[in-house]
Write a structure and sequence with these properties.
231 residues, alpha+beta, six-stranded mixed β-sheet, two-stranded antiparallel sheet, 6 helices, 8 strands, DUF4058 family protein, DUF4058
Length: 231
């Protein structure tokens, strides 16, 4: 199944990209659970930016027994700093159960919100940096065509690394934190993605040494088929 543009017409007018990403993460987790050895499991985790408003209201005829929530208030904050939490998260998390559920790997499917603003990109790369610094295996897959930011390059800058940058807008990158001769290193495998071309297979290195092939084409094709998306 060739890679389609889920973010521009005509497909974007017929299908919702977030529904596709949600389904893709589910089928990726399903495929992993069929190949992971005993003691491991994969779970999809899709969260999109949803705002919850907490409304205030005034009611004059409250009974005397009603608790008053304003009897105590905190002092002014010590500091107020700009902060952007990760709004969209579409990922597959792989856990080891040997010492309770422990995260050992993650596959991140990039959303438009992850690339939209510098603060959003910073939140996404911060999460990826945390994974890598903990030795957690990571794969990033970016098929978003409407924004040009390259999160792999920004992650490398965040880690203060200067490898050959990815010039392509769409890509899959697999990362492995390894150690040799007493020194840690970061290995990664870059795969450019192209519309109308099939997707590659990339390695997923789990913390602890195990690695698995992630057949992006197989799960992408399955998702398109189950979602009734055709070329």
């Amino acid at each position: 199944m060739p890679l389609l543009d889920h973010f521009r017409p005509p497909l974007s007018l017929k299908r919702h990209w977030h529904s596709f990403h949600n389904a893709w993460s589910t089928y990726l987790a399903e495929a992993l659970n069929q190949s992971l050895p005993e003691g491991y499991f994969a779970e999809p985790n899709a969260q999109f930016g949803i705002e919850i408003d907490i409304a205030t209201f005034s009611e004059t005829n409250l009974p005397d027994s009603t608790p008053v929530a304003t009897q105590w208030t905190p002092r002014s904050p010590t500091a107020t700093l700009p902060f952007q939490p990760t709004t969209d998260s579409v990922e597959v998390q792989i856990f080891s159960t040997q010492a309770g559920p422990t995260l050992v790997g993650a596959i991140e499917l990039v959303s438009p919100a992850n690339k939209h603003r510098p603060t959003h990109r910073n939140a996404f790369t911060s999460k990826c940096q945390t994974y890598l610094q903990q030795g957690i295996g990571l794969v990033i897959v970016d098929i978003v065509t409407t924004l040009s930011a390259n999160l792999h390059n920004e992650l490398m800058e965040r880690l203060d690394l200067q490898p050959v940058s990815l010039e392509t807008g769409l890509y899959a990158v697999a990362y492995r934190v390894a150690e040799s001769d007493g020194a840690s290193r970061l290995d990664f495998w870059q795969e450019p993605l192209t519309l109308t071309k099939e997707l590659p297979t990339v390695p997923l290195f789990l913390k602890g040494g195990l690695f698995l092939p992630i057949d992006l084409e197989q799960t992408y094709h399955l998702t398109c088929t189950r979602q009734r998306i055709s070329e």
